[in-house]
Amino acid sequence: MMRSIQRVVIAFLGAGCVMAALAAPGGSLIDFGIWMRAIDRLSVSVQKRIEKGEVDAARKDAQRLEELYALMETFYRQPGRPAEAAEISRQGKEFAAQVQQDIDAGQLEAAAQNALTIARACNDCHDPYKPVR
């Protein structure tokens, strides 16, 4: 009976440690995967919405991209992670902010170019720096 209680306590503490790791600042590998899929989807969506003239929706997509790239930058700024990937994430965040500014200024062609730059940068970073293969 005592061993059963000990096993339950150990399992409970182990689960707590896992949950704490997942909630840690900078995100977990699970978070990373979610962010990457969202960035991939939004980088395409923002381009299509700009092309269709759906500026409000395109701006929202770009805003979410900026938020996601900020999370990615924090993820890569953690010890032991590549600084170059953090810099690429920072640049992605800036391009997403620029897309929003371009949309606000009515410069849809510039917004489209900056959105395309984001999509291309995904591959440049993804291939060498994706932590899970």
Layout of SSEs?
Blueprint: H1 2-22, H2 29-52, H3 55-76, H4 83-104, H5 108-129
Helix pairs in contact: 2-3, 2-5, 3-4, 4-5
Q: Globular, elongated, flat, extended or rod-shaped: what is the shape?
A: elongated
Biggest beta sheet summary = none
Cα distance spanning the termini: 43 Å
Number of helices: 5
SS elements, strand count = 0
What is the CATH class? Mainly Alpha
Low-confidence stretches: 6-24
- The name of the CATH topology is Four Helix Bundle (Hemerythrin (Met), subunit A)
CATH architecture: Up-down Bundle
Cα-based radius of gyration, to the nearest Å:
19 Å
Structural class: mainly alpha
Mean pLDDT metric: 80
The portion of residues assigned to helices is over 70%
Beta-strand content: under 5%
